[in-house]
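Re: the 231-residue chain
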Amino acid sequence: MKVVFLEDVPSVAEAGEVKEVADGYGRNYLIPRKLAVLADAHAAGILESRLKKRARLQAETEAEMRELASQLEGKEVVIKARSGAKGQLYGSITNADIADELEKSTGLVVDKKKIELTESVRKVGSYEIDIRLTKDIIPKIKLTIVEEEKKEEGKAKKESKAKKAKEKVTEEKQEGEEKEGAEKKEKAEKKEKAEKKEKKEKAEKKEKAEKKEKAEKAEKKEKAEKKEKKG
């Protein structure tokens, strides 16, 4: 059976090729899946239509890939990982790890299979990573591996932070109490001062009244003595 291939079939033929294939392979596999059509009078028209559609889709895909490449180029992905002596990681960073972190940090979705690791990422540090979107579109991103904070250190930092917060609250409370005490003392002193002033004013009024009364009595007595002498 002679057929015209409409799509690329790995290890068999590329789109546009005309080849002889086994009847069963053609009828049961290639033609039902629209990978090929019989090489007859209608084949040329079908092939042309299919190739135009394929070219249009390829152009659209390439435009999308170029747009994605422009967004990816130069982006930095930071991954925290546990490490031991000399920054050696416990395990290695995979292209799946990079794809996940890339999506989390930038929102850009990239198939992990397109992320090319030319070397194993097993140490803390920076790496340049190629992302092969197509044969010719290969943006580069920066991968930075940093040491993950150890649980003990994290716990110590949290405890230290909590202690400082507690000390601050205690200090603020103490300052508040001291301020309140100072205000009470000042108020009491003002009250005491006012009471003393009032007491002093009362004493002065009393003394003044007594002096006036004494003067009046002396004057009255003097008048009485003068009257008695005249009589």
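The two ends are 177 Å apart (CA to CA).
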